[in-house]
């Protein structure tokens, strides 16, 4: 009996000992799968990780539906197609307010990007890497921070400016004056210019020409502002742009088409490393065909594509160039297409647009037609110039359309006004080749891999021209840069017809040229706003937006989340 | 033998315990029992639910026959209270019990469904729709926390159960106790704040072997088919909305096409449950084993859920002082979530046709080329989403009597969970729509254990009854997961079993998440003269999830009870046979946040530079090194009463829970770079009352009628947020309001013709939804939104009734929930009025139909402007949850065929619904967000229970 008792106590003692032994580290929390800011950013790899992360958020603006809707819609170039839910952005009607996710998304991504940049710049002194390397990396990130702020200040005016990483909980925010924000942007870009190399080992990283182009762009934009320095800013912008044109390794390609696409070897177009890393590109947002790296991808191929697949039997959605997935968001205005005339002199219309779709399946194909025959053809001609009967006889089942305004009362005109609202015309229009994505692995894949060009030398020429026009008050100096672009755009032998004189050049002409060169590239709304032409040109050229646009629309609404989550008073832009 | 003193019928399952020991058994199906007692001085305790307990000194008797008196209250019945048991009549805290009859009566999926309507203060609401295998949500006395968990703690045979309760076979459950007030839950300290549900499974006993089978088969069908537009109506919608027609649509309209897609994808579902169990034992060893097969098929035939469980419960008296045993369940579950073709069928145009002239499926029906034919998903193995779970959940225990009054118990509860999800979307499935096949595989393994050391000391004298319980426990969890998603596999027959052959890797990852809790607890129960009871508890908990320096919390409670009916001044009356007054106060904690929240972490970023990877890390979550315990202080006052010799038995309670330092995910202005942070902020209060009433309306020999009413109300309220007395509009938290409110614009109609000028102030047009400009400043913005209601009901009523006449029984249960507001997401999703998707056949505005219901269709908007304002409905509903008719075949008939008991029943689930919603929508949805992604159903079933 005594022995038994001993055993009992032994069990008790052993249990207690066991528990105490096991339990020492029960409450210790060790993060194994994740890492924290403090431990990682000071290491060489960690610092590079932080720099890379600073780039990423531009992917949520360029090639993204929201980013497109606030820059492409509601301009002279583009109106809405038949699909999509954000047509109110184009039309400037109810719904265009602070509750719209279309504004919230870019806003939040920019500020997430800014905090990442602030962390990199603030923690750089502690990072354990060679100073020279570090300086370049910090230069890249200062460029990126400047870009995030430049986007914010252009859309929203006075916004919260912080150059420090957020460490604790921050529930207040300010509306700092635009001039302060421009000062911060300019300081960052000047620093970047000082340290960045002409060329980086990795494509897509920020270079000195990119920072110079950006600063030119910033000065040009500030020049129009009441707090800007007018002529001096124009002059600085012009000098920086000219420096990039004359002294960088960037050059205008001979063929406008090659800016966006390469030859696929059989006369077709493809986007590949050759086209995406050409010598004209200064800064492009990187996308990848490796889906692990691609995030949401470049989705612009969806947004500009018409609903070609519903017009003909025998023509279906497919892989490859020209037959992608259609989201029918952005539809050209008549003005934008007309702006390319004369089409036999300026090659940019032909090189920019897909106007023909071919039958691509035997399924239900119309009698007499075969795969490879024309199914849809959008011409610029009038009926008198284009023998529709003959074409129809030659091409069984073909759908013919024209964008010629003289035909506006006829059934085949894209812009015809006399038909019911249910007509399919809203869903068919010329589709830009510059957004096409032939590398998508799957029919419905949204995540495109085409790099998104933000800055290229062609645009540097336009900045130079606009800056000189502003500086000089006339086109005499600007002429040279405009004509360089126009010459390149001319069909062989038509160069002289493309030339313009100093007297032809005014702000409207530069905006026209800008559209011919860079239409649809998520800068139009900002270009019109910068030059003070938004209301005038939207009223003139965008029939869906014209009746509704008002003065206050030159600023975008502050997202409601920002206002309601801020503990101090964060004011809305006027009118909203 | 144990019999019913009133009827002489044998009583089955009576608890027989040698007083002051752990030696015990239960009576078998004939009421017989046998037990070995240590000595002639031993006293046998006979207790049974609904009967008065008897104590019988053994002496030198070898056969003790006992006739138990029906005593409605069951004051002496032993109730599981956590780390021990207590007589019901001595419980100081708020504990509701659900008996095995109530649990086993209805065909249910899990313990949560079995709880529905059974206990006051417990809300068990479905999560909407009828996807087979879906959990119900349980809330005990409302919610306290804004963003930390509000889930109660489940404790199965003494071990905390993490994860879905659907993984536990409800047919093994003998009883459930719901601990509600702080006194009852404080012993679970940090995890008791949301209430505790103690689940006890069947065990064997010293009794002859009994083999039982119970099973049911039911057929389910949708409550109602939604009223969607037909071809003609849909054509009109598009026409009015100005949405462009395609040629194929015009052709289909001209040909009079009108496809009823919903009808094509819905069928009848079914449910079957088969339980085979065997129980028995001898004086030293008791066992209970069961095997269960449950299968539910949805009304969408691609969805089903299968559960197989096996259980072994063993108790062995190794020697005089040592008892060992286990409760172990093995589970294998498979949920085929499948593709949800219902959504596709509701969306696709009625002008589209499913089959061509030859009867072949058209994948992309011409009249709606943007939508894939939902019937494509019915092709064999074209689209799979298989979620398989495997779990071993065990409690291994040893119990030693160290001294006469002191015993020690050790529980070791390991649990291993494996979860595997395999997703395969073939090229022709509706999710890939002709694209490349997509495959995803996920694996998760969670290992947890609970290790507990419990000391119990009992001291019983004439007037004093002292019980002390001490606990030292640790619990740890280690969860690992791995997933990979690929695209473009070379052949589809591999499904998700050869991922390496894919051309594209979309995503992959793995994760490790660990946490631990360490606890010390002590409890003293003291009973004076059988009239005054006092319970004191204290628990220290340490949690790894909280910040250094804030890891430990202390959670004390005190409770007292006065058994008024035992006082001498009550002896002269016979109205009350039981009257007890209880009061308690205590503090419980909540640490229901994910691990690692106190530490700022980095988020992966994805980028590339040309062909080189540009992966990075950006600041992802904000560190909060100050995170500490969220704590709730609860005051509870309860009155238990029995009237007219137990004909009326009830409990009335009021409580007030004050929660402070709420662990909450607070939304931040994004200008800081962070969207949210976990913080301890604010205070909330839950006040409520509960009434539980059981009446035996009729109780004669052959005929009995019993009714059970639960009635409770709860009001939750935010008292303070940041100490400034100001609301937090950004988070939609308002002082004086419940934790969640519907905060939106107020619809006041539709802009009508003639109101063009007034509408144009808001850049609107006739036909659009008219919103009240609350501040009347000509602009609609964040300042014009108001609180439209809350999703939390103010009153819940459940009424169950059972009638028995000879062998026939009839029972029903009613459920009513009132005072809340629901958001009809189904209406929103199915009436976009855009003309892109089919639409509910709603009354929409046109120039000739000036309704104020729905706006004019608008093809240019994905949703109508201010569309959500149409969707708030009063949430009140009333349901006949269940009706059942059963028949017990008379014993005399059965004894001839060797069957001890046989009961047959017909059951009808969700018999009737009254609500403000459209028919076919089930208003019962926790959180009030009625999405009806899968149609709600009712079920007719037939079942039988047989004992051999």
CATH architecture of the domain at 40-196 and 517-576 in chain A: Alpha Horseshoe
Characterize the main sheet of chain B.
Answer: 22 strands, antiparallel, barrel
Task: Give the overall average pLDDT of chain A.
Answer: 93
Q: Are there runs of chain B of 5+ residues with pLDDT below 50, and where?
A: none
Distance between the termini of chain B: 19 Å
CA-atom Rg of chain B in angstroms: 31 Å
Mean pLDDT figure of chain B: 88
Q: What structural class do you assign from the helix and strand content of chain A?
A: mainly alpha
Query: What is the terminal separation of chain A in angstroms?
Result: 89 Å
Oligomer: heterodimer
What is the tally of helical segments of chain B? 10
Structure overview:
- The complex is a heterodimer of chains A (576) and B (948).
- Chain A has 576 residues and is mostly helical.
- Among the domains of chain A are: 40-196 and 517-576, Alpha Horseshoe (Serine Threonine Protein Phosphatase 5, Tetratricopeptide repeat); 300-435, no CATH class.
- Chain A has helices at residues 2-23, 37-40, 44-56, 65-69, 87-91, 101-123, 131-156, 178-195, 208-223, 230-247, 273-276, 300-303, 334-338, 348-352, 388-394, 457-472, 478-489, 495-498, 507-518, 524-530, 534-541, 560-565; strands at residues 78-80, 262-263, 269-270, 281-285, 330-332, 353-354, 356-358, 374-379, 399-402, 431-432, 452-456.
- Chain A has a 3-stranded mixed beta sheet with strand order 7-8-9, with no helix packed on it.
- Chain A is globular and about 100 Å long.
- By secondary structure, chain B is mainly beta.
- Helices cover 7% and strands 48% of the residues of chain B.
- In chain B, the strands form 11 sheets. Chain B has a 22-stranded antiparallel beta barrel. Chain B has a 5-stranded mixed beta sheet with strand order 9-14-15-12-13.
- The interface between A and B is large, with 118 and 106 residues.
């Amino acid at each position: 009996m005594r022995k038994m008792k001993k055993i009992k106590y032994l069990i008790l003692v052993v249990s207690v000992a066991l528990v105490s032994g096991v339990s020492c580290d029960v409450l210790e929390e060790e993060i194994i799968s994740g890492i924290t800011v403090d431990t990682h950013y000071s290491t060489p790899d960690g610092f590079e990780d932080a720099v890379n992360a600073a780039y990423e958020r531009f992917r949520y603006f360029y090639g993204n539906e929201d980013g497109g809707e606030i820059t492409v819609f509601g301009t002279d170039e583009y109106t809405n197609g038949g699909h999509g839910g954000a047509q109110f952005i184009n039309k400037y009607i109810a719904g265009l307010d602070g509750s719209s996710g279309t504004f919230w998304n870019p806003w939040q991504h920019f500020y997430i990007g800014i905090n990442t940049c602030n962390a990199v710049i603030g923690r750089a002194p502690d990072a354990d890497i060679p100073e020279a390397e570090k300086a370049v990396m910090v230069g890249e990130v200062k460029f990126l921070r400047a870009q995030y702020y430049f986007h914010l200040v252009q859309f929203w005016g006075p916004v919260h400016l912080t150059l420090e990483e957020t460490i604790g909980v921050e529930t207040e925010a300010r509306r700092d004056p635009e001039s302060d924000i421009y000062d911060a942007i300019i300081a960052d870009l000047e620093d970047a210019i000082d340290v960045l190399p002409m060329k980086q080992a990795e494509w897509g990283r920020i270079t000195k020409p990119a920072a110079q182009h950006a600063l030119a762009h910033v000065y040009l934009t500030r020049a129009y502002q009441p707090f800007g320095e007018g002529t001096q800013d124009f002059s600085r912008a012009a000098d920086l742009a000219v420096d990039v044109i004359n002294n960088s390794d960037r050059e205008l390609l001979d063929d406008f088409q090659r800016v966006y696409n390469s030859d696929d070897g059989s006369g077709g177009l493809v986007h590949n490393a050759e086209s995406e890393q050409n010598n004209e590109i200064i800064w492009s947002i990187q996308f990848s065909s490796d889906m692990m790296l691609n995030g949401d991808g470049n989705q612009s191929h969806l947004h500009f594509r018409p609903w070609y697949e519903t017009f003909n039997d025998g023509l279906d959605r497919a892989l490859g160039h020209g037959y992608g997935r259609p989201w029918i968001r952005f539809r050209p205005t008549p003005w934008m297409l007309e702006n390319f005339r004369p089409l036999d002199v300026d090659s940019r219309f032909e090189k920019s647009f897909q106007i023909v779709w071919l039958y691509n399946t035997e399924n239900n194909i119309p009698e007499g037609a075969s795969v490879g025959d024309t199914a849809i053809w959008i011409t610029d001609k009038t009926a008198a110039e284009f023998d529709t009967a003959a074409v129809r006889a030659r091409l069984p089942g073909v759908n013919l359309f024209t964008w010629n305004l003289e035909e506006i009362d006829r059934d085949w005109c894209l812009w015809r006004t006399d038909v019911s609202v249910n007509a399919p015309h809203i869903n068919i229009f010329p589709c830009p080749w510059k957004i096409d994505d032939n590398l998508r692995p799957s029919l419905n894949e949204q995540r495109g891999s085409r790099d998104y060009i933000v800055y290229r030398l062609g645009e540097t020429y336009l900045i130079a021209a606009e800056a000189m026009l502003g500086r000089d008050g006339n086109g005499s100096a600007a002429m040279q840069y405009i004509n360089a672009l126009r010459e390149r755009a001319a069909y062989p032998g038509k160069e002289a017809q493309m030339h313009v004189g100093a007297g032809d050049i005014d702000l409207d002409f530069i905006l026209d040229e800008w559209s011919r060169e860079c239409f649809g590239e998520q800068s139009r709304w900002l270009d019109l706003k910068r030059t003070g032409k938004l209301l005038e040109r939207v009223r003139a050229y965008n029939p869906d937006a014209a009746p509704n646009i008002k003065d206050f629309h030159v600023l975008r609404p502050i997202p409601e989340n920002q206002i309601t989550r801020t503990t101090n008073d964060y004011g809305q832009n006027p009118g909203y | 033998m144990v019999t019913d003193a009133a009827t002489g019928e044998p009583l089955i399952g009576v608890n027989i315990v040698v007083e002051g020991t752990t030696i015990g058994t239960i009576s078998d199906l004939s009421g017989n029992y046998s037990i070995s007692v240590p000595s002639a001085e031993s006293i046998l305790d006979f207790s049974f639910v609904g009967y008065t307990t008897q104590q019988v000194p053994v002496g030198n008797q070898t056969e003790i026959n006992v006739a138990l008196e029906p005593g409605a209250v069951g004051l002496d019945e032993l109730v599981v209270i956590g780390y021990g048991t207590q007589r019901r009549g001595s419980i100081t805290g708020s504990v509701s019990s659900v008996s095995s009859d109530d649990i086993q009566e209805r065909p249910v999926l899990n313990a949560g469904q079995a709880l529905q309507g059974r206990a006051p203060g417990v809300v068990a609401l479905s999560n909407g729709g009828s996807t087979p295998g879906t959990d119900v949500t349980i809330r005990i006395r409302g919610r306290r926390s804004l963003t930390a968990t509000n889930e109660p703690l489940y404790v199965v045979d003494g071990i905390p159960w993490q994860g879905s309760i659907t993984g536990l076979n409800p047919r093994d459950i003998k009883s459930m106790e719901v601990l509600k007030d702080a006194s009852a839950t404080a012993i679970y300290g940090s995890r008791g704040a949301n209430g505790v549900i103690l689940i006890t499974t069947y065990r064997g006993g010293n009794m002859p072997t009994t083999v039982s089978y119970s099973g049911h088969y039911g057929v389910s069908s949708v409550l109602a088919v939604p009223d969607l537009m037909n071809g003609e109506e849909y054509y009109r919608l598009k026409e009015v909305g100005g949405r462009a027609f395609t040629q194929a649509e015009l052709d289909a309209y001209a040909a009079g096409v009108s496809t009823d897609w919903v009808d094509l994808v819905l069928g009848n579902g079914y449910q079957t449950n088969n339980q085979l169990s065997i129980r028995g034992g001898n004086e030293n060893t008791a066992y209970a084993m069961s095997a269960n097969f449950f299968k539910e098929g949805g009304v969408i035939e691609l969805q089903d859920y299968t559960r197989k469980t096996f259980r072994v419960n063993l108790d062995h008296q190794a020697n005089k002082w040592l008892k060992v045993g286990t409760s172990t369940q093995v589970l294998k579950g498979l949920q085929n979530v499948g593709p949800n073709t219902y959504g596709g069928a509701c969306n696709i145009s009625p002008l589209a046709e499913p089959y061509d002239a030859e009867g072949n499926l058209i994948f992309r029906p011409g009249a709606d080329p943007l939508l894939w034919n939902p019937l494509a998903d019915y092709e064999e193995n074209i689209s799979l989403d298989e979620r398989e779970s495997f779990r071993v959940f065990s409690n291994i225990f040893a119990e030693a009597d160290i001294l006469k009054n002191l015993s020690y118990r050790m529980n070791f509860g390991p649990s291993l969970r494996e979860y595997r999800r395999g997703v395969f979307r073939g090229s022709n499935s509706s999710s890939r729509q002709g694209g490349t096949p997509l495959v995803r595989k996920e694996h998760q393994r969670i290992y947890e254990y609970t290790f507990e050391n419990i000391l119990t000391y009992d001291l019983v004298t004439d007037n004093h009854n002292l019980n002390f319980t001490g606990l030292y426990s640790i619990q740890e969890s280690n969860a690992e997961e791995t997933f990979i998603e690929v695209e473009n596999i070379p052949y589809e027959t591999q499904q998700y079993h050869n991922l390496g052959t894919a051309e594209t890797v979309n995503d992959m990852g793995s994760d490790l998440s660990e946490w631990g809790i360490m606890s010390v607890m002590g409890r003293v129960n003291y009973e004076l003269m059988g009239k005054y009871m006092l319970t004191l508890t204290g628990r220290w908990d340490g949690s790894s999830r909280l910040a250094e320096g804030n890891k430990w919390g202390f959670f004390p409670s005190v409770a007292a009870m006065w058994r008024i009916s035992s006082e001498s001044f009550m002896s002269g009356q016979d109205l009350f046979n039981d009257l007890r007054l209880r009061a308690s106060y205590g503090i419980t904690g909540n640490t229901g946040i994910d691990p690692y929240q106190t530490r700022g972490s980095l988020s992966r970023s994805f980028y590339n530079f040309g062909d080189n990877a540009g992966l990075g890390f950006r600041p992802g979550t904000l560190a909060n090194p100050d995170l500490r315990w969220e704590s709730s202080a609860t005051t509870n006052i309860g009155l238990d009463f029995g009237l007219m010799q137990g004909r009326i038995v009830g409990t009335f309670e009021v409580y007030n829970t004050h929660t402070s330092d709420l662990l909450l995910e607070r939304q931040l202005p994004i200008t800081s770079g962070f969207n949210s942070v976990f913080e301890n902020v604010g205070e909330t209060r839950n006040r409520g009352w509960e009434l539980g009433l059981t009446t035996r309306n009729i109780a004669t020999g052959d005929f009995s009628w019993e009714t059970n009413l639960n009635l409770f109300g709860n009001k939750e309220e935010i008292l303070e947020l940041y100490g400034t007395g100001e609301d937090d509009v950004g988070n939609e938290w308002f002082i004086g309001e419940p934790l969640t409110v519907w905060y939106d614009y107020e619809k006041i109609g539709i802009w009508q013709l003639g109101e063009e000028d007034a509408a144009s102030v808001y850049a609107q047009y006739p036909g659009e939804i008219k919103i009240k400009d609350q501040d009347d400043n000509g602009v609609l913005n964040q300042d014009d939104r108001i609180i439209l209601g809350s999703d939390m009901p103010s009153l819940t009523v459940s009424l169950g009734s059972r009638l028995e006449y000879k062998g026939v029984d009839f029972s029903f249960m009613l459920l009513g929930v009132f005072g809340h507001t629901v958001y009809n997401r189904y209406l929103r999703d199915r009436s976009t009025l855009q003309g892109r998707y089919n639409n509910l056949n709603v009354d929409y505005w046109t120039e000739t139909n000036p309704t104020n219901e729905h706006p004019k269709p608008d093809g240019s908007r994905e949703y109508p402007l201010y569309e959500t304002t149409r969707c708030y409905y009063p949430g009140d509903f009333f349901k006949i949850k269940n009706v059942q008719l059963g028949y017990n075949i008379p014993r005399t008939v059965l004894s001839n065929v060797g069957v001890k008991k046989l009961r047959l029943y017909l059951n009808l689930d969700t018999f009737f619904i009254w609500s403000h919603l459209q028919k076919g929508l089930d208003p019962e949805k926790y959180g009030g967000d009625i999405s009806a992604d899968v149609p709600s159903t009712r079920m007719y079933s037939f079942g039988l229970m047989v004992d051999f």
